[in-house]
């Protein structure tokens, strides 16, 4: 019996239902007293508006009468198990806060443990839309019966509902309607809300000198001083978590916008070309990648393309990427040849001085002819460009030359080739060739060429997708490098 009572107390404490603990203890004591001496187990179930205790035991099938305080009771049988159960209603249809827990927490390690756990939960997300939900579900039912979080979503000072949680989920809509009639405090100090059936408190969510929102919480009885102390401390931690999440989201949005600005605005229409590009930045949204690609027309039936990789990531790499992309377009439309464009881009990068970054680049011009596609290529320190023949032969088609941003005296020469119908040209960044699994790279022993040789008779899109899938399957962990794949197929 002492173990049963201890277990029941732990359950009522965890469910914040200590107000019904005396009845729960009497109920379980009566049910256990009916046990016939065989091994049994006690199970507590929470049904929202009520709690139910079950005593499960092997038995000969004898019956029993209604236990004290139970609003419903019964017996169920299986072939070898009898389960005797009884149910208690919770006051108000909702869990009741355990002031006993608050007293212990506020004067001992329990408080610090609760706040530490709350901090871990709040720090576990950088999504500003998730933080209000976490705040409310930390507060309910430990500190209050309900919690509503309002936030300044547009930075104009107007507070709007972000999340509402109630211990009794069926009361959420009722609570929302009631809160619509309440005026929120405008100052940065805790305040009491004028609500007749609740003691309701409002705590400002202020971080780094900025008011981000308000945390409101309520319970039917009076808030103990310990609860208000914990709630105020929690509001400060919640505000800091919300501010951090917002700052991260703003930075991520800015970086995504910057990344988009470094790529072609739309997928180009390419009559006479079977062309496809795959681009995947690595890592989180908080860093701009260094890989880029481009495809644009310069005359009727004449196209320029580029695929490149700037050393490093972040704003410095993005600056060089933007410089490269716009320089390639501008000089190509001014009539400069492929080699001349690459040479002038090399000089432009060097003129950036300390802001410069190394750049590898595969740049070419495509001319549509009746016989196929005539290509002029320059490979400046870039992974090898490969051509796949319809008979399965794969060959390197561009001679390696100096990468950009290193040597002022570097000179560049064009390589010429023709893609006849069925030929495929493949260009990739080192996110493909240097994909690592243990001590092996994907391109060891001509691994990329072997992959390409398996792509006979596939469209440009199918070839690119097969290469991407091979990169993903090569190692179990996510890639730590950006990835770009450019495929051109002569129709």
UniProtKB/TrEMBL annotation:
Name any one GO molecular function. phosphatase activity
Q: Which UniProt keywords apply?
A: Hydrolase
Q: Does the keyword Metal-binding apply?
A: no
UniProt-listed SUPFAM superfamilies: GAF domain-like, PP2C-like
Every copy of the PPM-type phosphatase domain together lies at 273-490
Q: What is this protein called?
A: PPM-type phosphatase domain-containing protein
Phylogenetic placement of the source organism: Bacteria, Bacillati, Actinomycetota, Actinomycetes, Streptosporangiales
């Amino acid at each position: 019996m002492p173990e049963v009572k201890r277990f029941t107390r732990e359950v009522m404490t965890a469910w914040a239902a200590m107000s019904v603990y005396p009845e729960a203890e009497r109920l379980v004591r009566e049910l256990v007293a009916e046990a016939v001496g065989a091994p049994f187990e006690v199970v507590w179930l929470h049904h929202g508006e009520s709690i139910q205790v079950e005593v499960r035991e092997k038995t000969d099938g004898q019956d029993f009468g209604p236990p004290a305080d139970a609003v419903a009771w019964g017996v169920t049988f299986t072939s070898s198990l009898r389960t005797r159960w009884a149910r208690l209603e919770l006051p108000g249809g909702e869990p009741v806060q355990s002031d006993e827990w608050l007293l212990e927490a506020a004067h001992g390690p329990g408080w610090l443990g609760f706040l530490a756990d709350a901090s871990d939960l709040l720090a576990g997300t950088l999504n500003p839309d998730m933080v209000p939900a976490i705040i409310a579900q930390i507060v309910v039912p430990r500190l209050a019966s309900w919690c509503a979080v309002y936030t300044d979503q547009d930075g104009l000072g107007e507070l709007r509902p972000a999340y509402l949680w109630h211990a009794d989920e069926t009361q959420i809509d009722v609570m929302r309607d009631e809160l619509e009639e309440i005026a929120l405090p405008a100052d940065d100090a805790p305040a009491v809300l004028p609500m007749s059936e609740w003691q309701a408190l409002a705590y400002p969510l202020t971080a780094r000198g900025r008011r981000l929102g308000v945390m409101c919480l309520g319970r039917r009885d009076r808030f103990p001083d310990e609860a208000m102390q914990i709630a105020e401390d929690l509001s400060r931690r919640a505000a800091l978590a919300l501010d951090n999440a917002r700052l991260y989201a703003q930075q991520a949005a800015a970086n995504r916008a910057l990344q988009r600005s470094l790529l072609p605005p739309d997928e180009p229409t390419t009559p006479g070309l079977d062309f496809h590009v795959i681009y995947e930045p690595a890592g989180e949204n908080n860093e701009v990648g260094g890989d880029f690609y481009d495809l644009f027309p310069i005359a009727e039936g004449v196209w320029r393309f580029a695929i490149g990789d700037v050393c490093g990531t972040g704003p410095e790499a993005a600056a060089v990427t933007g410089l490269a992309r716009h320089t390639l377009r501008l000089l190509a439309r001014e009539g400069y040849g492929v080699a001349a464009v690459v040479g002038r881009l090399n000089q432009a990068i060097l003129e950036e001085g300390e802001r410069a970054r190394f750049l590898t680049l595969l740049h070419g011009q495509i001319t549509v002819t009746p016989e196929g596609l005539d290509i002029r290529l320059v490979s400046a320190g870039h992974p090898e460009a490969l051509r796949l023949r319809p008979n399965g032969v794969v060959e390197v088609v561009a001679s390696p030359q100096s990468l950009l941003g290193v040597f002022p005296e570097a000179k560049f020469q064009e390589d010429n080739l023709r893609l006849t119908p069925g030929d495929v040209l493949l260009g990739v960044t080192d996110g493909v060739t240097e994909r690592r699994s243990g001590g092996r790279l994907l391109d060891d022993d001509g691994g990329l060429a072997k992959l390409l040789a398996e792509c006979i008779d596939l469209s440009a899109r199918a070839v690119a997708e097969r290469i991407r899938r091979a990169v993903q399957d090569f190692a179990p962990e996510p890639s730590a490098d950006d990835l770009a794949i450019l495929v051109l197929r002569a129709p």
